[in-house]
Every structure is written in C-alpha cells, then in structure tokens.
Amino acid sequence: MLALEVSNVTVRYGGVEALNRVSLSVSEGERHVVLGPNGAGKTTLFNLILGEVRPAAGVIRLHGEDVTRRSVVQRVRRGLGRTYQQPEVLARLRVEDNLILAVRGRIGPRFTVFSKRERDRDTRKRAFAALNAVALGGVAERRAHELAHGQAKQLEIAMALAGGARVVLLDEPASGLSAGERKQITAVIDGLDRSVTVIVIEHDMDIAFHIADRLTVLHQGRVLACGDPERVRAAAEVREAYLGSGLDG
Amino acid sequence: MEEFALTTLNGVAMAALYFLVAAGFSLIFGVMRIVNMAHGSLFLLGGYLGWSVAALTHSWLLAIVAAGAATAALGLMLQQGLLRHYQGQELTEALITIAVSIVIADLLVATYGGLSYQIPAPVPLGHSIRIPGTALRYSSYSLALIGVALATGLALWLFLERTIWGVVLRAGIDDRQMVAVLGLNIQRIFALVFAIGAGLAGMAGVLDGTLLSLVPGVDSSYLVAALAAVIVGGMGSLEGSAVGALVVGMATEFGIGYFPSYAEALTFAVMAVVLVVRPTGLLGKAR
Amino acid sequence: MIAFHGAPSGRSLAWCSTLLAAIVLPFLASSFVTQDILALAAWSAIVAMSMVFLSKYGGMISFAQVGIYGVGSYSFAILAVGHGVPWYGAVAGALVAATLCALLFALLVARTYGIYFLMVTLALGLVVYFLTISNYGLTHGSGGIPGVNPPHLGSISLAQPIPEYFLDSSVAFAVLLGLTLLMRTQFGLALQGCRDNPRKMRAMGYSVMSYRVIAFTLAGSIAGIGGVLGVWYNGIIAPSYLDLTRIIDFLAIAVIGGMESLEGTFAGAIIYAIVTTYASSFTDRYNTVIGLVLLAIVMFAPGGVGGLVSRVGARLALAKAQLTPASTE
Known about the structure:
The complex is a heterotrimer.
Chain A: E1 2-13, E2 16-27, E3 31-35, H1 42-50, E4 57-62, E5 65-66, H2 72-77, E6 80-82, H3 95-107, H4 117-133, H5 149-161, E7 167-171, H6 179-190, E8 197-201, H7 205-211, E9 214-219, E10 222-227, H8 229-234, H9 236-243
Parallel strand pairs in A: 3-8, 3-9, 6-7, 7-8
Antiparallel strand pairs in A: 1-2, 1-4, 4-5, 9-10
Helix pairs in contact in A: 3-4, 3-5, 4-5
Chain B: H1 2-32, H2 39-57, H3 60-81, H4 90-112, E1 128-130, E2 137-139, H5 140-162, H6 164-174, H7 176-182, H8 186-211, H9 218-233, H10 238-258, H11 263-277
Antiparallel strand pairs in B: 1-2
Helix pairs in contact in B: 1-5, 1-8, 1-9, 1-10, 2-3, 2-4, 2-8, 2-9, 3-8, 5-6, 6-7, 9-10, 10-11
Chain C: H1 10-28, H2 31-58, H3 65-83, H4 87-109, H5 114-134, E1 152-153, E2 156-157, H6 161-182, H7 186-196, H8 198-203, H9 208-234, H10 244-257, H11 264-282, H12 286-300, H13 304-323
Antiparallel strand pairs in C: 1-2
Helix pairs in contact in C: 1-6, 2-6, 2-9, 2-10, 2-11, 3-4, 3-5, 3-9, 4-9, 7-9, 10-11, 10-12, 10-13, 11-12, 11-13
C-alpha cells in the first residue's frame, strides 16, 4: 500500500511555478530521499505535503485518503510529521515538555486542564521512548534553546516521530552537523522502525545513497528522475544536472 | 444629496489629515519596525507650537514651517538619543516612545492648559468658495488641505521611487538584511525617516489646528486614526497609508454625519472586516 | 507533583511572609493607605495581570486590556445604576460582557503576531474609549456614569477600606493562583508552545488560533473582574478612565513589575500607587514623573521588579549551591 501519493501537483508563488506537475509515490515503510540543487522545490514539496502550502492543481493522498483540502493540523493527526531545515523547537520549554506536547499534539488530549495519572504516565512513556530513540535522554530537563545545533536536530526528529507518526518528512537532517554528528543522525534514521515511512531531503550524497530505498531528483520544480539508487545514479540527465556539477556540498 | 456630497468632502479633507499623520507613522514602522506611540504627541506639539508662532508673528506659513522643523528635530533627538540603542528590540522601542509620549503630553498640558486653541487660517483661504459645476460651497482651506496632502503624497512618492535614498528605503522595507549587506549607511537613513515622519506629524498638527481646534486628547484621536489607517491600508507602504486614510476618513465623517452616537463603531467595523479578510491590510503584502 | 522538602525553601518563606504582611498591614496602616494605596494596588494588579499573563505565556502584548476592563466597568454601571439590577446580577452581566468583548477582539487579532498585534490591540482599546465618549444613550458621553456603589454583604459595606482591601486582594490572589496553576496543565503548556513557535505547534497538530483565542478571552474575563472592582473603587466610570493615559498607567504597572512576572504586578501596582499618590502632592506634573520612571525601567531594568527579584534569587541559589559540598556536578 502507498503511504504517500503526490500526483501531478503544481504550486505557484506569484507568477513563478515552484513545483510543476510533480508526482511522488512512497510505499509503506520505504526510505525515500529527495535530491536536487538549491531552489529545485524540495522544501516547497515538504510544505505542500504537510499542508503549509496549497497546490494550484493536483492531489495528495495519505494512506489512500485524499488530504489535499485538509489542514496541517488534520494531516498531522493522521500520522504525518516533519522537521525543518533550521531546527524549529519550542525554545523556552524543556526538552521533555517539547516531546510531551509532540505526543499530545498527535493523539491528544490537547486542551485538558485536568491531569489523569494513567494518561500522564502513558504520555511520558511515549515521550521518553521518542527521546531515547534519538539518544537525548540525558538532556530531558534542559530548555530547548540551550541545546547544540545537532541536539536540536535530533530533538526535532524525535518530535516528528512522537505519538506514533506513520510518515515523517526530514528536511536536511544532516546539514550543519560535524562528521561525528552525521554518523549519529544516520544511525538514528537507520534505527527507525520499519513501520514508519521516511522521506528525507539530503544534500550529502553518501548519506542519501546509504539510507535510500528509492530516490526522486527534483530540478527547477520538475521531477528529473525517480527510482532505486542504481537507476538514479545511472541516469545521464541527473549526472549532468546535479551529481556531476559539484552542487552536492 | 447635498448633505451626502458635503459629508464626502469632509471625509476627503479628514483623510488628507489622516494621510499626513499615517504616512509618517507607516514609514517609520515599515523601515524600522518601530510603533511610534509618540506620533500623536508630536502631532499635538506641532499644533501648539504652530499656534504660538502664529500668535507671535501673525504668519501662518512661518507657523507650519517652524512646527514641522521643531518636531522633526525632536523626532531626530528621540531616534538618535534613545531608540538607536535598542534597534531590533521592538517592545522596548514601543515602550520608550510611550514613555516619551506621556512626558510630552503632560508638559503640553502644563504649558497650554486644557483650553481649546485655533490657528487662524492664512488670509487667502479664510472663506468658502463655490465648487465649479455645482451649487455647492465649500471651505477653501479644506480644499487647500486636500491639495497639500496630495502634494505631500506626490513628493514622498517621488522621493521613494526616484531617489537612491528611496530605493534603499524600499529595499529596507522588503528586506532589512539586504540594505546592511549593501554597505549603505542605514543609520543615516533611519534618522532621516524618523525626522520626516515626525515633521509630517507636526505639520499635520498645524493643519488640524487651523481646520478644527487643538485640545488635549486630539493626540490620541490622531494616533488611533493613524493606527486604523495603517491597519486598513497595509503596513509600510505609501499607497497603503493613502487608501487606509481615505477609508478611515470617510468612515469617521459618515459615522459622525449619520449616526453620531456610534461613529467610532463604523471605524471599528471597517478595521474588523479588514482584519478578518486581509490581516495584512488592503495593500499589504501577504506574508 | 509538587516536591516537598524537609526545610522550608527561601521561596516559600518569602511567600508566607508576604501573605502574612498582606493580612496584617491593613490593620496597622491608616485607612487612607489601606484604601488609596493597598486596595487600589490590588485591583489594578488584576488588570495588569491580564496583560502580563498574555505577554508571559502567550507572547501577546495586548493594549486592549484597558478597553475590555472598561466594558466590564460600564456594563456593571449601566446594569446597576441605569437599570437597578441587583449587584450580583450586574456583576454576572459585566463579566459576560467583558468576556464576549474579549472573544470578539480575540477572533480579530488571533492571526496577528508581535509588534503588529500590539498595534491592533491598541487601536481596539482606543476605539472603546472613543465609543464611550461619543455615545450618550448608553454610556452618557464624557460625563460617564457616576454614583456606582459597591454592595453590602450583610452588615459589611465593601466601600469601607478594610473590607474593600480584603475583597480586592483576595480576588487578585485567587487570579494569580488560578493562572499559575492553569499554566501547569496541558493547556498551559500548549499555550507556551504557541508562544515559542506557532508554526512548529501547527506542524505538531495544534490549532494555534484556538489557544490564542482562549487565552485572550480568559485574559478579558480577568480584565472584566478588574473592571467591576475598579468601578466599585472609583464610584464612577467615564471615558477618562479608559483613555491613552490610563492604558499607559496599567502598562506602567506591568512594566514596573516585569512583563514576565505575574507576582511582579503586585509590586508594580504598589509602587505605582505610591508614586502617583505622593508625586501628586509635591508636583502637578506626576505624569511626567511616571513617564520618566517608565523610561528608566525600560532602559535600565527591562525585567522590572520581577526580573530583579528572580536575578537576585538565581544569584542566591548559585551561592547556596557553591556552599553545599554535597551538590553533584
């Protein structure tokens, strides 16, 4: 079954077409990497899938359900999660509270003022499970703005996953990280449960080809190539437009 | 019909005044992200100074020039002496202008008391004239006021569109980082903009003191008019201020003319509709 | 949830002594001080708290709170004086009116942020002021509605300094306690998340607008409570109680106390009451004094009294930690 299906989507900003009849199909449990030079429309694609940007044409399906007209909030509650290129966290709250909110944002309760011990324990269990999955258990008490860049990126991944996300979008999880941190974040992505579908934007070719089951290459708002790593690597036009031109830094 | 036409003319005259106040307010906000809460006080200060100069010299022209120059200088001092040190701290800047506005307002009460002052109109504009093609007579001063606002708008437009300073300013409104990158002296531009905005407010004070009258309290009524014009028209754009001022001016005059007891409700309603339909204002850029 | 330690901490000690002082003080002070400083400060702090609450937990600097407070005052006066509604009915009506007004404003401003939010709320607050001036039928124009009396409870008149003080201060304390506890709940945590990063909260499944609307409406109800107590204290409500100067008065209380400290509003309100009371006895220019005090605080102590206290507290805690050898790390 397809976890995510984007068909023939067009996004316009003013007169400019940021995405032009883009299609993307990702099966359940797949690791799918989106490649492309700056300005290719990768982040716009993520904004579109999450619902922050509305398409001028096309359809988006999440686990078979048409969510094109659904709001961000509705999509997130249907199991979608994402991270941002520059880590977005709840800066003044503790790491633990960031995760508690992430869990409850997806499965609730969201407005309650009465705490029930049973429910609170369950929330905390889920929050710490997500926290330990990215090896941040030691900094649970810190405020999120005190974290190092790499830790903040890991926290964001944990938040995207928390509460049982089924499809997560990771926007350049390794950007701005040291070699050691890159290894760590790759290990985190490798370690994610196979029931979760993962779509990653990544510039680092080693990481991209290491994690990818399949890849999509975007160029100037269009899909240039799509398929398994060998096929994408072999595609002559990709070579020309992207891999060979030294834009992969 | 005649009442409707007169109300419309009054609305345009009011809009002319609102525009002069709102344009400076909006320019300062657009360029520096400062909500200048002292804008109303600078307006009232300009009006009172103009009255004093007019009383001394019997020259209306001298009054408006002196008021504009004095408030521009005060604005410059406010920007250079206080605000410059807190750039980017939006709340702090707003609070500083609030504190300054209390002090100015209080010192004006101390100097001029609670009486109402009116500045005599310049001699050639002291009577009403017939509007060509109609049977309507209308104050020549109000018509001149509309002309002044149009001329000021045009001058500001030329300044923003046709001079290098204007290009930098507009770039600053759209992309504040870029101006700094260009290596232009942004501080000098900030100072200039603040002085122009404050000077416009002071001159508008004299214009208002001639059209209506000056009493404590008109400072906040013009502050709210400027706020409403900017909210309705859109932030930081000259065209936005003009459209906003026109809408708010009309709403004010039609409110007063047709249901005086709830006049401000009309301004509120206009503002509310804009906030719901286009939170960034009629001509504001969607963010 | 709450950790109990064997020895009382410095914080709880400070709280107990403040509470004790708040109970004993009115019996030691003159009735002038009890009413014109302490009671005034107590209900003023409630209005200021509605502002600080929005700023601290919601990241919203609202200048509309005084307008909403005015809706509360006017509603009580119109119902009680104009229509002879019994006081409890008028109180209920006033709170409903203030809450609905806040809800209306909230729906208008919930999509605006930062300094733009400040501007829009200022405009809304001033619109309320100008409406009360130009309206005669309902609000009686600039003369306002005089002759508002606080109720009698049995034989106790709430117009008397000591009963009034205890009413105002216990309501203020209840508001402080209620808000503090509310902010520890899931709702409070989510509101703080919306303050820190609205976009992220949306991407986490939260309807940010709902939280902002609820918080603003709640703050409006609190301002409405302040409005009822305020009109009981003043005995009159008129447009001059809602003008720009008064908006700035309450803002000054919030800033003196610290925009990040709910407790600070009490300190801010007392300092403010003292300054206005005594400055007005040696100069007519007490608004200039207020302006200069505000300027000095904004420039030199941006955290206000609350900020100073927490800075000193942090310093003490640090010193204590250094003295205790058993402390890990």
